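Worked example 3 (structure in, sequence out).
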């Protein structure tokens, strides 16, 4: 049995590594094809009608694919594992390819969703098929799915430890002592493949283990600052859009997906027209801001923040297939950079890129209820104790303040809120 598990973990890591690499490159190719080159250079030259047509047409196609196979929608990894164990869900090879197509369409057309959700789902689907191939016991389905999810995250982020932390916080905590070795094996193999093709998020200003005490006051002030924006994000998703979905459209439930597809396409088209930087997954925003040394106008920063928050929440309701890990990181990076710029105005000795790195991890960690992953992510991307310590303190305090008013459920962060019966 141990030999089977080792071989299954190796196969999961190898296949996930290559498949996720193909998935990321497919999105890039489709984006360049749809926008006739680098979208940030070509969008200003494209006609307005085209910018509205592309995301609207794409999201209608995505909703059509989802109507044919509901399993291509975004589900939590733990939810997938529970459904399979209880025979409520069967993951087919067809589902895997449809998910890749739907997600690639969502991302390449400008919807501000991330690649990590589909990557974890793709890894889980691959692991499930390998579980069937090796005829492993049913009790090991959850373990195999956690191995697959970890491999997917490790590959797409080019970060093996972040992939492991993600799997542990989502599902593998139940059997971590017994099966952690297989999870590590698959994650490291998937990472080893993807690093040859994909670009990791790297923090170029790391001070290593040196801690700068000048940042203590700024870090404490940053907690209520980022909490305000988390309140705004949650208000928009859980209050405003929830109200529109279940109150205004309750008499048009049959056409609900069509209505939100139109809204989603229109919102993304408007974002592409106003600020293309606020569209797409946001990975480039994170990589740029955490290494940015030049001043960025505050008006530009906060306008992109607002547009990305609106775009991400509307994308969830429009059924765009993608995660929110990266979009949330990009929003947090923008908030952190804006905070650093504001502090610099009053001559405090802080660098905006440090708070961009902190904000990226904290915003994602609070909204997705992944505090350990947030800290591990800050370690693996920055190797800077200033960022790691601030992230650890902030993610706990901001989570506490956010939960005073909002009920943040990990199960529902990547989908529209349900009606309470």
């Amino acid at each position: 049995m141990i030999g089977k598990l080792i071989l299954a973990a190796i196969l999961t890591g190898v296949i996930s590594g290559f498949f996720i690499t193909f998935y990321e490159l497919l999105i890039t190719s489709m984006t360049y094809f749809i926008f006739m080159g680098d979208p940030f250079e070509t969008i200003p030259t494209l006609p307005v009608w085209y910018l509205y047509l592309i995301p609207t047409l794409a999201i209608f196609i995505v909703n059509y694919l989802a109507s044919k196979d509901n399993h291509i929608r975004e589900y939590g990894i733990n939810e997938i594992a529970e459904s399979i164990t209880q025979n409520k869900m069967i993951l087919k090879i067809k589902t895997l390819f449809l998910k890749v197509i739907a997600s690639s369409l969502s991302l390449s057309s400008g919807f501000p969703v991330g690649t990590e959700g589909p990557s974890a789902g793709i890894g889980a689907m691959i692991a499930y098929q390998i579980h069937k191939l090796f005829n492993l016991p049913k009790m090991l389905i959850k373990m195999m799915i956690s191995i697959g999810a970890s491999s997917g995250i490790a590959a797409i982020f080019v970060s093996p430890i972040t992939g492991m932390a993600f799997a542990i916080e989502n599902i593998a905590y139940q059997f971590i002592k017994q099966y952690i070795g297989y999870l590590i094996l698959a994650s490291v193999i998937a990472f080893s493949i993807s690093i040859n093709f994909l670009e990791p998020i790297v923090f170029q200003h790391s001070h290593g283990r040196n801690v700068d005490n000048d940042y203590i006051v700024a870090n404490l002030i940053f907690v209520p600052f980022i909490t305000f924006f988390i309140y705004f994000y949650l208000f928009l998703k859980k209050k405003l859009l929830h109200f529109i979905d279940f109150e205004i459209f309750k008499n048009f439930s049959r056409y609900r997906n069509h209505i939100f597809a139109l809204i989603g396409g229109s919102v993304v088209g408007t974002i592409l027209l106003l600020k293309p930087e606020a569209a797409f997954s946001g990975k480039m925003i994170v990589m740029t801001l955490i290494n940015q040394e030049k001043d960025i106008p505050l008006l530009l920063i906060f306008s992109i923040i607002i547009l990305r928050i609106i775009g991400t929440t509307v994308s969830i309701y429009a059924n765009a297939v993608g995660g929110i890990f990266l979009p949330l990181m990009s929003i947090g990076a923008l908030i952190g950079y804006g905070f650093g710029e504001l502090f610099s105005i009053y001559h405090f000795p802080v660098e905006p890129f440090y708070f961009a790195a902190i904000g990226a991890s904290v915003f994602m960690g609070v909204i997705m209820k992944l505090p350990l992953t947030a800290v591990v992510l800050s370690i693996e991307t920055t190797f800077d104790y200033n960022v790691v310590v601030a992230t650890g303190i902030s993610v706990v305090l901001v989570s506490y303040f956010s939960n005073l008013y909002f009920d943040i459920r990990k199960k529902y962060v990547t989908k529209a809120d349900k009606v309470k019966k």
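Notes: Residues 2-34 form the longest helix (33 residues). The mean pLDDT is 83.
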